[in-house]
Amino acid sequence: MIEDRLNHLGMEYAQAARLADVSVETLAKIRRGVRARPKTYRRIERVLGWSVGACDVVIAGGTPQLQDDGQTQRRSLPIFDDPIEQAVWDIDAPEDVRLYFIGAYRLRDQLQPLVDAWRRQQNEEIA
């Protein structure tokens, strides 16, 4: 079912995983029927344009309901829980650029101590 929907949307497997903010491995496991957290299912459903609960329907052997008339617009899907990440995603820019900035935003807390240490080192060298 997932592959059929991806083909219908003209979307690559890895792209769908990125858009859903899950790993390709997680998406592959779900495809094979391995259970995942409800939050993971909701992310995948949004990317595929399926209604909430559609992943559970598919796992049970059913056919998923579409979220809309089937003309899902990938760029307008609310695929990020963080409003800043969503705002970056909605900018009219190439996907790789948007993903780059979202990745940098996610690393900000890890990068700030490194920047602070570098600044302290620079100040010590000047003094």
Automatic annotation (TrEMBL):
InterPro entries the UniProt entry points to: Cro/C1-type_HTH (IPR001387), Lambda_DNA-bd_dom_sf (IPR010982)
Bilayer-crossing regions: none
GO molecular function terms attached to this record: DNA binding
Domain HTH cro/C1-type intervals: 3-49
Protein name listed in UniProt: XRE family transcriptional regulator
Originating species: Nocardiopsis gilva YIM 90087
